[in-house]
Design a protein that fits this description.
- The protein is an alpha/beta fold.
- Helix content is 30%, strand content 24%.
- The protein has a seven-stranded mixed beta sheet. A seven-stranded mixed beta sheet has the order 12-13-14-15-16-25-26, covered by helices on one side. It has a six-stranded parallel beta sheet with strand order 19-18-20-17-21-24.
- It binds zinc ion (2 copies).
- The site of one zinc ion has 5 residues, from loops.
């Protein structure tokens, strides 16, 4: 691809738009720094394999004007701020004109690390709002590097809006706080309470990982953040009800609507006004599905929008029905119990675990599964279940068990193990049982011990109930690799592997499309026309397929790369 670098001269107004977004080049930029310096001093230069974002960011600071370009070399995108060697006055935008830009930082052309930067400018007023600040997951060393990169300098962030408590959306909030963030983090009340336990758990994992590396590999790494950062993050969080506008920061308001994905999950409507000017953006968060146990169905925002940032995890496939998943769960439990094996279920401690317990409760009540013990072997899942119990206001009252059962998660045969010894004791026990343990992609947590112990036994079943990202152990199980590397050992994979997509907490292609059509219909009703859809939170194949489908349906659709900046 060939793109033009804008001409820069001292006399003419530069062919770039004024924007407050800039930051000093980092050391990784230095080698390319000079190259761009030279390029921006020429009249017009063409660079191979170089991509400029739709808007090139500049800063008009007194004596140090800079121009920023984004260069992608192979798959890596490097954001480079280049010193503008000749003084120039940058007056791109007249006073009081409202501009809003989105920079796609994380979950752009991948699933994890959800984070989008909104920059709002009117007159001399500049505001920066982050939508989510999630953890990158996947290959360890690569994600460690990515997790250490701040989306923007802390002092520029005015507020953060969080869609839900999953770690790929909330996991780096304590890192912001550790680096000095003191502003507000807006979320729903249930998300705030779930974050209290999930971020503490994440801090614990960071600290343990650092300890492990120091002990076993002589590698000294500083944990991304510590427990006290997670605790301080909680102090920044403000829980808001659904469907009520709140002021995020000066001149910017937002509203949460039910996303139907996990307890407390929300889509976010962000609105900015300046006089008569109005810009509205909808961030889908992770969209769930109608009919999931316990939680309500997604309610697409009724506001209409100029732009939608939409997840696309399952943009290329349709799921089995939720009811079908419950039947399949019953079959897997019956078959494995008949073989005398264990059912090992790696599950997100929050959401999936409670849904499984709820469904097992129902299956057992109706006599559809044998009476075998069910162990929830995760202190986080145990705590999360307590948070679920605190937020009945977010339950789906149309479900029979919700209405009838005073305690959804407590019934004979189910036990919550808290300490490690209890967990270890499970390995020496005999007979069929169900073990549900985190993490959901089998990357960490107690499920690793159970897989280490049980993956080689053909009587057992490893039951996969959620999305497994590339380069995770869960993905290797789904791919049925002949052996799995766990705690440094090669463990042969002899257990049965069953995948239940019906439990996915993500909307499938049909669900996403109907959600977007609903939002478009509302927008057309109030004369906003068809919004542009930016697809995030998906792998390449899913995003491409879904983009094609959306274009056929009349949407303007883009799949932004990390670092892409677009105006609204
Ligand atoms: Zn999620
Ligand atoms: Zn997600």
């Amino acid at each position: 691809m060939m793109f033009r670098v804008p001409a820069v001269s001292t006399s003419a107004r530069p062919a770039v738009e004024l924007h407050p977004a800039w930051r000093l080049p980092t050391t990784e930029d230095t080698s390319r720094h000079q190259r761009l310096d030279a390029l921006t001093n020429g009249d017009t230069t063409t660079m191979d394999h170089t991509r400029l974002p739709p808007m090139t960011a500049c800063h008009s600071g007194a004596n140090t004007p800079r121009v920023a370009c984004e260069v992608s070399v192979g798959v890596a995108v490097h954001r480079i701020r280049v010193r503008w060697t000749r003084a120039a006055h940058l007056t791109g935008v007249p006073n009081r004109v409202l501009t809003m830009h989105i920079e796609f930082f994380g979950a752009a052309q991948e699933v994890t690390g959800s984070c989008h930067i909104l920059r709002i400018s009117s007159g001399s007023k500049q505001r920066t709002v982050l939508l989510d600040c999630g953890m990158f997951q996947g290959r360890r060393s690569e994600s460690r590097e990515k997790n250490k990169r701040l989306p923007v300098p802390i002092e520029e962030i005015d507020a953060v809006i969080l869609s839900h408590a999953h770690i790929d959306h909330a996991g780096r909030l304590p890192y912001l706080v550790a680096r000095g963030y003191k502003g507000t983090i807006w979320a729903t009340a249930a998300t705030r309470d779930l974050c209290a336990i999930m971020l503490a758990d994440s801090a614990h994992i960071q600290e343990k990982d650092a300890e492990y590396l120091a002990r076993h590999r002589d590698e000294i790494i500083e944990p991304l953040y510590r427990m006290e950062d997670a605790t301080r993050t909680q102090e920044c969080m403000v829980g808001m009800p659904y469907d009520k506008w709140f002021e995020v920061t000066d001149g910017v308001r937002a509203r949460f609507t039910e996303a139907g994905h996990i307890l407390g999950s929300a889509s976010v409507v962000v609105e900015v006004r300046e006089g008569e000017q109005l810009k509205r953006l909808i961030f889908s968060g992770d969209i769930g599905r109608a009919g999931l146990p316990i939680i309500r169905d997604p309610a697409p925002p009724e506001d209409g929008a100029d732009v939608i940032i939409c997840e696309s995890t399952y943009g290329n496939r349709d799921h089995e029905s939720v009811e079908g998943a419950r039947d399949q769960l019953a079959r897997v439990v019956r078959d494995t119990a008949a073989r005398g094996g264990r059912i090992l279920i790696p599950a997100f401690a929050v959401g999936r675990t409670q849904e499984l317990v709820y469904d097992l409760h129902e299956l057992r009540r109706d006599g559809n599964i044998p009476e075998i013990p069910i162990y929830i072997d995760s202190p986080l899942a145990t705590n999360a279940t307590a948070v679920f119990a605190m937020h009945p206001e977010a339950y789906d009252q149309s479900e029979e068990l919700v209405r009838r059962s005073p305690n959804l998660f407590d019934f004979p045969m189910v036990s919550f193990t808290r300490d490690v010894n209890e967990s270890k004791r499970l390995n020496s026990m005999h007979g069929p049982m169900i073990i549900i343990a985190a993490s959901g992609m089998a990357e960490s947590g107690r499920i690793l011990h159970h897989l280490h112990h049980g993956a080689s036994d053909p009587r057992n079943t490893i039951l996969i109930v959620g999305f497994q990202a590339e380069h995770t152990l869960g993905r290797r199980i789904v791919e049925q690799r002949p052996s799995l590397r766990i705690f440094g050992d090669e463990v042969p994979l002899a257990a049965e592997v069953e995948v239940l997509n019906g439990y996915s907490a993500h909307a499938d292609r049909t669900g996403l499309l109907s959600w977007l059509r609903d939002v478009r219909r509302h927008g057309e009703r109030d004369g906003r026309g068809t919004p542009t859809v930016y697809l995030v939170h998906g792998e390449h194949a899913a995003q491409e397929a879904f983009a094609t489908q959306l274009r056929r349906d009349g949407f303007r659709t883009e799949i932004p790369a990390p670092g892409t900046v677009v105006p609204i």
